[in-house]
Amino acid sequence: MSDIIPTPPVPRVPVRGGGTFPVRRIFCVGRNFADHAREMGAAAPASKAERGVPVFFHKPADAIVTGDANVPYPPGTNDLHHEIELVAALGVDAPAGELSREAAEALVLAYGVGLDLTRRDLQGAAKAKGLPWDTGKGFDHSAPISELVAAADVGTLDARTLTLRVNGDVRQHGALHDLIWDVPDILHELSKLYALKAGDLVFMGTPAGVAALVPGDAFVASLDGVVELHGRITG
Description:
Blueprint: E1 12-14, E2 20-22, E3 26-30, H1 34-39, E4 55-59, E5 64-65, E6 71-72, E7 80-81, E8 84-90, H2 101-105, E9 108-115, E10 118-119, H3 120-128, H4 134-137, E11 143-144, E12 149-150, H5 151-154, E13 161-166, E14 169-175, H6 183-191, E15 201-203, E16 218-223, E17 227-234
């Protein structure tokens, strides 16, 4: 049986060295840096034993923006915020069942850096009413992402940092060793809820310093020493 509409293109992320990564799903982690949790008015765990369970949400696969392209300012908001994040790209399907840390880490093919763009006013209004805040997170062009770099070339993540500059000024800077849940932790927790597959992306959460972007702002997000993402907000 033939399709009754044209088949939508598969969103793809460039990979350093050649080829592309077809995106299946985008998982996102909320409140994964203690300093960001506090700036958003949430309690931050004093130790790993007190961290509870992570907060997850989704973005549509076609929310990605690649190739250092311009990012249009989204409709419906007057308060667009940046959130720089490490992005993990899964290269193989997970085995059935709950993953160990070792099995979880083996799923990662590559890493990149991305922005979890957020319509903060819509998110805040939904949270105040106890409603889902999908419209604040899962909108068109809300996931700019760099090219992906093979995990073997990135090395130990604990030694890496994230930095976001807007118009040349540092807005966010955080060390990945400060993640409340690291990549194996997050994949372990996700495996309790979802069947993880090759093509999944995981945005790992942001450090403190989130703030507004306006049309004309130029940004450079970097997984320091590994890869950069460049872009500009357009009106």
